[in-house]
Design a protein that fits this description.
Number of domains: 3
Number of helices: 11
Order of helices and strands: HEEHHEHHEEEHEHEEEEHHEEHH
Strand order of the largest sheet: 1-2-6-7-8-9
Structural class: alpha+beta
CATH architecture of the largest domain: 3-Layer(aba) Sandwich
Bound molecules: iron/sulfur cluster
Strand content: 15-25%
Distance between the termini: 39 Å
Shape: globular
Largest sheet: 6 strands, mixed
Radius of gyration: 23 Å
Low-confidence stretches: none
Number of strands: 13
């Protein structure tokens, strides 16, 4: 299967999850869907955040942009009353100078109040930072699950299960492809803790195997390296330990980036200002389409260096698009509006 159809499949899974998650039961919590997020070591294809409704609405107070780990450190511990920042924020384990910079950044973004008293920076909170995510679900998209894809995937999923950073781990396949209805032998390689589902060309999902809930609040194991299992491989596996606080921090950071980016951010790295670019209606929803290449382009090929790139003519920006800046900007605004619809209160 080509990279472009893998990308198209990923968008289809995201659209389906946004509409139909959780599979097989009614939605009780709002969800936020994002793609290509995770940690430095592991990036998940699709993630679904199952959110606390009140918490999600309160999160909107902090704006559409993600809060990075330094800003989270500030807003989570900002006190109700004016306090010198060193008296209210826990020792971060790195120089205080960086904390002070983060306090200034938080003040500039309007998410805490700051003032200077006797040469000391004081802060107080505007709103408590809510715990707005109940569960994080990671989905690995493999439209065509042949033997080598299943092998690589099994290894990744075993690592995901050992670390247990997400509450659930799933594999999504496309039942209309040859490998999309995986054989029993292939499925046996996938850890039993991982779920398996299919999403067809019409964007309809079906569960083949339900996952187990992973122990996100327990310590996790990071598998650094392990022997390949060959007859002559006597090397030892290397592991590291992930404590629950580290996991909780990572989950918050991932959730923050998901909140900002969602899954429609592809337009930010593609060229919607190319005259060949358009959004077209597919059976499952809306997808980017290139009229020159007659396919769903990947972000890697849809860029300024693309040999077929053709900028939208300036006249498009001066006639029907006097203020908005042309169809390319219009596409970005449309996707942004759709993203915001799932972030109540923004
Ligand atoms: S021609 Fe190239 S830059 Fe233009 S839409 Fe197609 S892939 Fe993107």
């Amino acid at each position: 299967m080509s990279a472009d159809s893998e990308f198209a499949f990923e968008l289809r899974v995201c659209q389906w999850a946004e509409r139909a998650w959780p599979p097989g039961s009614g939605r009780e919590r709002p969800v936020i869907v994002a793609r290509q997020l995770g940690t430095e070591r592991r990036r998940w294809d699709t993630i679904v955040l199952e959110c606390d409704p009140e918490g999600l609405r309160s999160r909107a107070n902090f704006g559409a942009e993600a809060l990075d780990s330094d800003l989270l450190h500030v807003v989570r511990h900002a006190p109700a009353e004016w306090t010198w920042y060193r008296d209210c924020l826990p020792d971060p384990g790195y120089p205080w100078q960086y904390v002070r910079e983060a306090v200034h950044r938080a003040g500039d973004r309007g998410i805490v109040e700051t003032r200077k008293r006797a040469n000391r920076i004081e802060l107080r909170r505007k709103w408590p930072y809510p715990e707005w995510v109940d569960r994080i679900v990671a989905i690995e998209n493999k439209p065509d699950l042949d033997a080598s894809a299943a092998d690589a995937l099994a290894d990744q999923l075993q690592r995901d299960v050992a670390l247990s950073l997400s509450d659930e781990a799933w594999v999504a396949t496309d039942p209309t492809t040859e490998g999309g209805r995986p054989t029993r032998a292939l499925l046996e390689d996938i850890p039993v803790e991982a779920g398996i589902l299919t999403v067809d060309g019409a964007g309809v999902g079906d569960v083949i195997w339900r996952p187990r809930t992973l122990p996100v609040e327990d310590p996790g194991t990071i598998i650094e390296e392990r022997p390949d299992g060959g007859a002559h491989d006597a090397s030892a596996a290397r592991f590291d330990y992930a404590d629950p606080e580290w996991k909780a921090d990572k989950r918050r950071e991932i959730a923050e980036r998901a909140y900002e980016r969602g899954w429609r951010a592809y337009a930010d790295t593609m060229r919607p200002d190319c005259r060949h670019f358009r959004l077209r209606g597919a059976e499952w929803g809306v997808e980017p389409y290139c009229d020159a290449k007659e396919c769903v382009p990947t972000a890697a090929e849809c860029r300024g260096g693309c040999p077929s790139f053709s900028p939208e003519p300036p006249v498009w920006r001066t006639k029907a698009w006097p203020i908005e800046g042309g169809p390319g900007k219009g596409i970005k605004r449309l996707l942004d509006r759709q993203r915001r619809r799932h972030r109540p209160g923004l």
